[in-house]
Amino acid sequence: MYRERDISIDFLGIRLDSPFILSAAPSTDELELAYDGLKEGWAGVILKTTSVEENPVPLKYPMMSSFGPQSRKVTGLGNIDLISQYHIDVIEKRVKALKESFPHKMIGASIMGAKKEDWQSLVHRLKKAGVDIIECSFSCPQGSMGEAPGRMLAQSVEATEKVAGWVKEAAGDTPVLIKITPQVTDIVEVARAVKRGGADGITASNTIPSLLGLDIYTFEPYPSLFGKGGYSGLSGSAIKPITLRTIAEIARNVDIVISGNGGAFNWKDAVEFMAVGAGNVQFCTLPMHYGFRTIRDLKSGLAGYLDAMGFKSPADIVKKALKNIYSHEEIPAPKTRAQLIEEKCVGCGLCYVACRDGGHRAIEWRSGNVPGQDDSRKPAFDEEKCPGCAMCMQVCPVDAIRMKEQMDGRCQYYEEVR
Amino acid sequence: MEDRRKFSREQALIEAERCLYCYDAPCEKACPAHVPVPEFIQSVRTGNLKGARNIIREANPFIEICGVICPEFCSEQCIRGKIDTPINVRQLHKFVTDNTDPEENLEPAERTGQKVAIVGGGPAGLSCARELSRLGYKPVILEKDVVGGIPAQEIARTRLDEEIAGKETGFIVKHFVEEVKRAEVEFVGDLLKEYGAVFISTGLEKEQEPDIPGTDLEGVFFAREILKNVRKGQKSPAGRRVGVIGGGNVALETAAVLKAEDPGRDVEVIYRRGLKELKAFREEIEEAVERGVTFQFMAIPREIRGDAKVEGIMVTRARLSEPDESGRRRPEPVENSDFFIPLDTIIIAIGQKAGEKFPEIEKTAAGLIKVNDKLETNIPGVFAGGDMVNGACTVVESVRDGKKAAASIAEYLERGKA
C-alpha cells in the first residue's frame, strides 16, 4: 500500500475525507447509487431533494439535453428534472441505512417544502433519521412550491430570510445549507438574507435557467417531448464562470460558509471554487457523465496540487484568491503590450487574423508572399498600435503570446495557465 | 484494398476540429490546385458538407479522384503537424465527396466564345476544359484513346474504384466539354485555323528502358502495360517470381497489384537506392508492404539473364554517395559485389519519356515541351501542360497546369479580340 495524502477538511463541524461530495441530483436518487458513490470514495452525499408525502412530482422524460462545440457534446448539460419522486418516508430510511453503512461519511439530504409545517416536519424527520447536514433547495429552475409557485424562492430576499429561519429553527444543531440561484439582481442581498435567517451556510449555486437549443429543421426545443419543450436547468463546464463569480461575490461580502456547486468538472475547477471562497465542492454533471470513478482523479489531483504548492490542507486554499479580486475601477491600468515567445510560435497566423479582423490591426504578417520579405510565417507586433487587449493570446493554440505589463517602473509578464 | 482510414461522421468532426484554421495556410499554398483547405474544413466542422464540396470543386475538378489518390502535398505542410500530427486532409476531403451529390448546385456557364482544341483528355486537359468552359469558351477534346487519362486507365482498381474514375470523367465531359473527337494529333498543323488556341496535354507516351542487356527476353514487361491490362480486368502475364525495377509510384503500385492478384507470388522491388530515397508516396509504400511485397535495396541492375525466357537478373550492390541534382544520394557500385536474383518475370518501371510528336514545338533536352510561365510554347496560341511539360506528375499537379493554361488561353484570346 502506498500512503495516501491527507486531504481531509472540516466543513461546518463535519470531517470530510476530501472536499468532494455528490450533490443532490439523479446520481443520489437511489439508495444503491448513493451507496456506490460513497464506496467509490466520495466524501459525502446530499440525497436528491425530497418533499412531504402528498407533494406530486410529475417527472417527464427525456429530461436531459446538452450542447457543446462541434464534437464535444456535453460542455453544458440541461435538465427538465424536478425534485425526487421519493418522499420523506423513503428518504429517512435511506439516511438511516447510509449512516449505518458509512458512519464516517457525510450523509446529507436536500428538502423543498410549500409551507412552514412542511419545511419543519421534513427537518424533524431527517434529524431523527440521523442526517449530518440539511440542504434546502431555494432554487430549482423548474420553480419552487409554496411562496410563489413557479418562481425560485431565492429570488425573493424576504422569502429567503423567512424560510431559512423556519428551517434553522427546526434544525437546531444540525447544520443547514441554503441552495441559492445566481439568477438574481443582487446575490449579496440574498446571501445576507440567508445569514439573517440563521442558516449555517450557502450552497452557491444551482443550475441556471436556460433554453438548451432547438432543432433548426423542426423548431422544436431540446429536449423535445412530442414536439414540445421548455426551459432547462443548465449545469456543467458552461456555467463554471458564473458559479465562480457567485461564490466570490458572496465570500467577499458576507461572512458565511459556502459549499461550491455548479460547473466544477475536475480538481482544478474545484481548486478555483475553493480559492474564491468555497469550503467544499459538490459535483453532479461530472459523475453523471463519467461516473463515480472520477473521484480518484479529483483526490489525487488535489493531493498533488497541495504538495506542489506546499499547502498542508485543502483549507489553506479557501479564499486565497479573494485578495486579488477588485471592482473594475479599482483594477490598475498598466501599459500593456502583446509579446511573442518566438520559440513557441508555430506560425498558424491565428493571432494575426484575430487582431486584423477582431481587434486593432497591430500585427503584421510575414508570409514570404511579398518578394524580399522574410518567410518566417511569424507575426510582428506593432507596439504603437497594440493596446494589449490579449485577444491574440486567447486564440494562440500553443500559448506563444504573453502580455507585458508595465507600471510604476515595474514590469511583469502575464500568461493564462489553464 | 478497403480503405480503413475512411472517416465516420464522428471521426470527421474530431479531425476537422483539430484544424487550426491557419491564416495564409501552408496547406493551401502547397496544394497544386490551391484548394482552400482550412475553408472547406471549417464547413465540415459545421456540418455544411455541400458548402465544403463547393469550395473544393471550385479549385479542383477532380474532386472524387483526388479524394482517393491525392498524395497530400497539403498535409506535409500542415502546421498542426508541428504540435502533434498533421490533419488528414484527404480523408476529410473524401468524407465530403462521399456524403454529397456532385450534381447539386451545378450551373454550367453558357458557352459563347471560341473553340479551343485540347489535345489529350487526361486530368490536365479536362481541368483546362472545365476552366475554359466556365469562362465561356468551347473546349473540344482530341483524344486517340480513352478520355480520363491515367486515373481512368492505369491506376489499379484496388486503389481507385473504376466507378469513381469513370463517373468523374463523364461528369466533366458532360457538363464542361463541347465535343470529344477521336483523333491522334501528331502536329499542331492546321489546328489554329479551326480553333482559337490549342492546349497540348498528351502525357508521356514512351517507356524508359534500362540500358542493360536482356530487355528483349520473354518475361520482360513495362509496368504501364501491366497496369492497363489489370485495370481492364485482364489477368497479368506475370509468373511466380517477379522483380520490379524502379522506386517510383508506378513501380510500387505495380508490385502491389501483382501481389494482390496472386498473394502466393513473390514480388520484389529492385531499387538502386535505399528506403529513404524511394520516390513513391508513403501510402504507396505502405500498401505494397502490407500486401507482402519485398525489397532489394541498393541493387543496381546489370543484366537480365536467360535463354529465350527470363531466368533472373544480375545486380551489383550499391553504396550511396553525395546527393545528385535531384537531391537524392547517388548510388555507386561496390566492387566485386555482383549477385544473381532468380526470377521468371521482370517489370520495368523506371519512368516514361516523351514521344516524337509535335516536331515544330521547341523541346528540352529530355524531349519535354518547353513553355514560358504562362505555359505557352514557342508557337503563339499553343499551350502545353501536364506530364509533357513536367515529366510524370500527379493528378493534382496536372489540375494546376490545366487551370493555369485555361487562364493564359483566355487572356490570349481576349488579347486577340482587342
UniProtKB/TrEMBL annotation, chain A:
Q: Which GO terms describe its cellular component?
A: cytoplasm
Family recorded in the similarity comment: Belongs to the dihydroorotate dehydrogenase family. Type 1 subfamily.
Q: Could you tell me which InterPro entries the record lists for this protein?
A: 4Fe4S_Fe-S-bd, 4Fe4S_Fe_S_CS, Aldolase_TIM, Dihydroorotate_DH_cat
> Start and end of every 4Fe-4S ferredoxin-type domain?
336-368, 377-406
- Its recorded name reads Dihydroorotate dehydrogenase B (NAD(+)), catalytic subunit
Please write the reaction equations for the catalytic activity of this protein. 5,6-dihydrothymine + NAD(+) = thymine + NADH + H(+); (S)-dihydroorotate + NAD(+) = orotate + NADH + H(+); 5,6-dihydrouracil + NAD(+) = uracil + NADH + H(+)
> What are the coiled-coil residue ranges?
none
Q: Which GO terms describe its biological process?
A: thymine catabolic process; uracil catabolic process
Which superkingdom?
Bacteria
Needed cofactors: FMN
According to its UniProt record, this protein's enzyme class is oxidoreductase
| Alphabetized UniProt keyword annotations | Flavoprotein, FMN, Iron, Iron-sulfur, Metal-binding, NAD, Oxidoreductase
Provide an example Pfam family for this protein.
Fer4_21
> What NCBIfam families is this protein classified in?
PRK08318.1
Function per UniProt: Catalyzes the conversion of dihydroorotate to orotate with NAD(+) as electron acceptor. Involved in pyrimidine base degradation. Catalyzes physiologically the reduction of uracil to 5,6-dihydrouracil (DHU) by using NADH as a specific cosubstrate. It also catalyzes the reverse reaction and the reduction of thymine to 5,6-dihydrothymine (DHT).
Q: Which GO terms describe its molecular function?
A: dihydroorotate dehydrogenase (NAD+) activity; dihydropyrimidine dehydrogenase (NAD+) activity; iron-sulfur cluster binding; metal ion binding; NADP binding; uracil binding
Complex formation: Heterotetramer of 2 PreA and 2 PreT subunits.
Task: Give the E.C. number(s).
Answer: 1.3.1.1, 1.3.1.14
Q: Its pathway? A: Pyrimidine metabolism; UMP biosynthesis via de novo pathway; orotate from (S)-dihydroorotate (NAD(+) route): step 1/1
